[in-house]
């Protein structure tokens, strides 16, 4: 697929290896319709296929929204079968982000509601602008979340706070989101992208395979015993000693120079 084929997204390489996907439906507050979800999926695969790709950032176009949810206009008249299929399209895209070989950071610039919040939570972590507004207001529309929010929100903020947000449908601002651990940092809106790129550069300087192991280990920690998680850590730690980057990282330390990682 050619980059030009992505009509609902912008894809740009901001710095060597640092890719940004910008959802591009600003008039609909970047609401997630089927086409956006499918293009997002393809865009992630496309970026992963760029051999030098190191970190992926996702944000929304315009200054009002990251994404104000799944597209209500598109969903309104669906029957149960169509709704289930639509949910599966969203679930597949969210899972594809979560399982990406790349670290993925959500840059939340404004409304981040419903499917938008589910998208942000499928990223490794969330950086927010000070105008960000988070929430899972699906119950106010007569439905539960459909793109994994009921499962990812408790893992982020704990079951009690997740239940409060899911059952009330109430929104929280950036500061509150920071306090409950939904986002990691809050920046002035004008600085969000720059600060996100800075953090992406810091990450990109580290060894790609070690990053991927960390990502998998953190995700696995939510679903298994500490014994199994630690066993997995031991295995991946051992595996990393078969990489050139481990030799380079430790040699560079002893030679008092900066390591040059290649991913090998
Ligand atoms: N879908 C479609 N269009 C949306 C939208 C959305 N989620 N959110 C906003 N828009 C559109 C508005 O319709 C409006 O379009 P025009 O009328 O100009 O054509 C434009 O974006 C600007 O919105 P507003 O005029 O409303 O802007 P305001 O600043 O006044 O308000 C707002 C901003 C974010 C507070 C408001 O737009 C709002 O409340 N939006 C809806 C937020 C929301 O409820 N989000 C959750 C959506 S539900 C499932 C699958 C998926 C899901 C659930 C189940 N299954 C298959 C089981 C997921 C559900 C959701 O995500």
Strand % is: 15-25%
Radius of gyration: 19 Å
How many beta-strand elements? 10
Structural class: alpha/beta
Q: What hetero molecules are bound to the protein chains?
A: 4-(N,N-dimethylamino)cinnamoyl-COA
Tally of helical runs:
11
Percent in helix: 40-55%
Contiguous low-pLDDT stretches (5 residues minimum) are none
Main sheet?
6 strands, mixed
Write the element-wise H/E pattern from the N-terminal end onward: EEHEEHHEEHEEHHEHEHHHH
Strand order of the largest sheet: 1-2-3-5-7-10
Rounded mean pLDDT score? 97
**Structural shape:** globular
Q: Give the termini distance in whole angstroms.
A: 27 Å
Describe this structure in words.
There is one protein chain. With 264 residues, the protein is α/β, with parallel strands linked by helices. It has eleven helices and ten strands. It has helices at 34-48, 72-75, 80-98, 115-121, 149-157, 159-168, 174-179, 192-204, 208-221, 226-240, 244-254; strands at 9-15, 18-23, 55-60, 65-67, 104-108, 111-113, 125-129, 133-135, 172-173, 185-187. The strands form two sheets. It has a six-stranded mixed β-sheet, with helices on both faces. Strands 4-6-8-9 form a four-stranded mixed β-sheet. The longest helix is centred in the middle third of the chain and has 19 residues, at 80-98. The model has no long low-confidence stretch (mean pLDDT 97).
Task: Supply the key terms.
single chain, 264 residues, alpha/beta, 6-stranded mixed beta sheet, 4-stranded mixed beta sheet, 11 helices, globular, binds 4-(N,N-dimethylamino)cinnamoyl-COA
């Amino acid at each position: 697929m050619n980059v030009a084929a992505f009509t609902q997204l912008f894809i740009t390489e901001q710095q060597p290896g640092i890719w940004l996907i910008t959802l591009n439906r600003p008039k609909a507050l970047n609401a997630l319709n089927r086409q956006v979800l499918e293009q997002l999926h393809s865009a992630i695969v496309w970026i992963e296929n760029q051999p030098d790709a190191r970190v992926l950032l996702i944000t929304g176009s315009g200054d009002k929204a990251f994404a104000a949810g799944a597209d209500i206009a598109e969903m309104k008249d669906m029957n149960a079968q169509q709704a289930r299929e639509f949910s599966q399209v969203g679930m597949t895209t969210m899972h594809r982000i979560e399982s990406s070989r790349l670290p993925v950071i959500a840059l939340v610039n404004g409304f981040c509601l419903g499917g938008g919040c589910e998208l942000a939570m499928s990223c490794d972590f969330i950086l927010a602008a000070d105008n960000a507004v988070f929430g899972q207001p699906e119950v106010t529309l007569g439905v539960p979340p459909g793109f994994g929010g009921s499962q990812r929100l408790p893992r982020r903020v704990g079951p009690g706070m997740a239940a409060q947000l899911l059952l009330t449908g109430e929104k929280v601002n950036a500061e509150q989101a920071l306090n409950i651990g939904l986002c990691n940092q809050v920046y002035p809106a004008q600085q969000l992208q720059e600060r996100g790129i800075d953090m992406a550069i810091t990450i990109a300087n580290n060894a790609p395979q070690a990053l991927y192991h960390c990502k998998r280990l953190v995700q696995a920690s939510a679903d298994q015993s500490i014994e199994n998680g630690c066993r997995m850590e031991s295995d991946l730690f051992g595996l990393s000693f078969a990489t050139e980057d481990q030799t380079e990282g430790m040699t560079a330390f002893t030679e008092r120079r900066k390591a040059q990682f290649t991913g090998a």
